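Example record

One chain of 356 residues, shown exactly as stored in the release files.
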Amino acid sequence: MKSVFWSVLVAGLLTAPQSTYASEAKNDVSWKIKGKIRADAAQSTTNTKTAGSRSDTLKSSSLTLTRAQFEFVGNKGPVEMRIKYYADKNELKYAFVEYSFTRELSVSAGKLDSRDLSLEWDYSTTDQYIFGSVGRYGVVSVPGAEAKLMIEDQALIFQVVQGATPAGYQVDHSTGGLTCAIQYRGSFMDKMIRPLITYTAVKTASPHLTKRNADGSVSTYNYGNGYQTHTGIGVKIVADGANVDLEYDTVKLIKQKNVDTSKDENIGSFIAQTRLGPMSDITPYAKLIVDTDKKGAINGEGDVTRTAYAMGAEYAWDGNIRLHGILSQEQSKVIQAAGDKNTSQLKLNFGVTASI
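Predicted structure tokens for this chain:
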């Protein structure tokens, strides 16, 4: 039934009566395919210390195909189709059709790239080296529709998608309610200042979120009515070739209210990132993240604080190949009744990104 609905919707867009703007648009078919492939070699040392116990140290090395993504973009008059595929994960990231009624108004339908959080969520994975904790709750791409209103350089976007699975969690989303988002993308002073603000009301498919941990174990959390609210406030500043990103993202996990001890969980990430270049073919890079996770438990048990930073440089080999060397460190603390758990990790990462 769902496949029939989307087929009819897309067919309707393609055959809809054309507006004045649509009739003026070129009806020639144009298309292009582009891709990015990134590989990384990393060496890390992780130290874990719990009060009253000895410190454990783990050293590891890895060679990883971080991302292999390919995107198809096709246009015919006022209709545009976009498809992005992650070959490394065998995942269809998005596949949708956009119809422009005028230069100011367009609608899209299909499997959409979710409107969530702020600048970090907006970047391609190929351009990031460490991530804020809030991003683990970002909405994965799911079927839905959106409308975009453009007024000069300002955009207001309304999106409605099927009940969604937060990234990093294994949740069946086939019975979820609607997840709704509103996003503002601005541009001021000849694109020197670019705010990006998003509010997303997430209806997960189930109040029971099942998370598979790195060691293979499974943790289950009961979020009562299954609702989350996500807010992302960020601004990109571009001046003299330098890019500075500042943002604050929050997630509230709204828990069941008929349980006396139940309190909402609040997660926040402050993120600052800069690319100071290019200086010749080299672009210096730095990023700082401060995370908090307040679970609302008595005496703060289970609360998490995390600080992470990364610094290094990207080197443009030519127009299609970029090398990077990044040193990152993160420290986290988990409050536990038996003794706080402190973890620190130092990581050195070398890699290459190729564009096609």
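Notes: The radius of gyration is 22 Å.
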